[in-house]
Design brief:
The structure is a homodimer.
Chain A: H1 8-12, E1 20-21, E2 29-30, E3 33-39, E4 47-53, E5 58-59, E6 62-76, E7 78-82, E8 88-90, E9 95-98, E10 104-108, E11 114-126, H2 132-137
Antiparallel strand pairs in A: 1-3, 2-5, 3-4, 4-11, 6-9, 6-11, 7-8, 7-10
Protein name (chains A, B): Double-stranded beta-helix-like protein
Pfam family, one (chains A, B): Cupin_2
InterPro entries (chains A, B): Cupin_2 (IPR013096), HNL-like_cupin (IPR047263), RmlC-like_jellyroll (IPR014710), RmlC_Cupin_sf (IPR011051)
């Protein structure tokens, strides 16, 4: 049975532009993501970007050192997981706070496009990809 | 001629909850605003809130000391003005960066509901209300 893909139009016609293919980060993502930077200013200690994910796309495990990351979900459905915790299903309006030093990943579900605004401080450390089998087993809750 | 009020449903059914009447800040607003805090965490150096404004509602002139404010417009139409500059008309998807020490105000237009996410660092200093006559003269551009 072929999966039904959802939320493509919602992501492509979101509040903020979808931006370009996120080539700068392609080595630390599985799948295709898109990035539109909303705030990138040397006088401001956070960067703000609109990140969009095609279905099945997720970033690698990573850590924000000397900083944090805040996610505001704006379209579609996705996952957020911290190391040692169960993955959390994300929908529009959800907010995620990732604290300094916490290993985590985020991305779309298998069947849905997904967008979040990411507010990020500090220096990221990029780690291994999310295990395909573990990702494949994630189920709607 | 009575004004036609727009964007009420867009604001009331926005991505993020509208929250409660913003009574904590009522002395530094003209009109009725609403606040839903999305991130308020002592370990995070910014606060993130969804602020909604009834038509004609705006905050007083204010300054963020030792910090900044970032606005992401999520619904309706509004105004942003820095001291000594012309007011800037805001629509969905617009982004505003207010730097440390800059005197400014923001709010709805006369005829539209308005919502923005505000990402705020530092300590605000609240000043005088926006002049009624000057606000009344603002025109769509």
């Amino acid at each position: 049975m072929e999966a039904i893909i959802v939320n493509e139009e919602q992501v492509k016609n979101g509040l903020f532009p979808m931006g370009e293919k996120n080539d700068a980060y392609k080595d630390v993502f599985v799948g295709q993501s898109y990035l539109d930077m909303l705030v990138a200013d040397p006088e401001i200690n956070v960067g703000v970007g609109n990140v969009s994910f095609e279905p099945g796309t997720r970033n690698n495990w990573h850590i924000h050192h000397d900083g944090y990351q805040l996610l505001l979900v704006t379209a579609g459905e996705g996952w957020y997981q911290e190391e040692g915790q169960e993955a959390r299903r994300l929908k529009v309006g959800d907010v995620v706070v990732t604290k300094d030093g916490v290993k985590h990943w985020h991305g779309a579900t298998k069947d849905s496009w997904f967008s979040h605004v990411a507010i990020t401080a500090g220096t990221p450390e990029w780690l291994e990809a999310v295990d395909d089998e573990a990702y494949g087993k994630l189920k709607n809750k």
